Amino acid sequence: MRLLPTLAATILGAILMTAPAGAALAPGAKAPDFTTRGAIAGKVFQVHLAEQLKKGPVVLYFFPAAFTGGCNAEAHAFAEAIPDFQKAGATVIGMSADDVSTLQRFSAEKCAGKFAVASAGPRVVSGYAVGNAGGSRTTRTSYVIDRHGRIVFVHDDADAAHHVEMTLAAVQKLAHS
Questions:
Q1: What pLDDT, on the 0 to 100 scale, is given for residue 133?
Q2: What is the pTM of this model?
Q3: What is the layout of strands, in order, in the sheet containing 141-145?
Q4: Distance CA 60, CA 48 (A)
């Protein structure tokens, strides 16, 4: 009799393991608040989403791992576009599962000290549905969050090429609405 529940659990587990780890949060969803440690220009500080939202919209972009090709290129592209994001009133925060000491170096070297990067712990990864199958990295997913804490735009694509332009366009649209 105990075989049936065990068999059902095994089949369900196999189905879940073949499904995507989780879909990105949808526009209109409430962005989960968090506090974590991050760095800007190599200096460590506390990052609290609710505090950042008091200044205006936030672009929260998750990237798989610091010091990898696509993530380096994406950080450079965001750094180059920071004046445009600031003009639209937005704050950019990069997030990965990397530890803070790695992100300190990354913030200074690859982000050119222009925006914060922060460590996404398991609660943040789960809350934003950005965990990969192994759990050691985050997916490449960008969120634009309005000042009220609602997600207004999501770009969920492993290719780093369009995250900056698409999130900037969403922020600019938000600024004009």
A1: 63
A2: 0.84
A3: 43-48, 35-40, 116-119, 91-96, 58-62, 141-145, 151-156
A4: 12
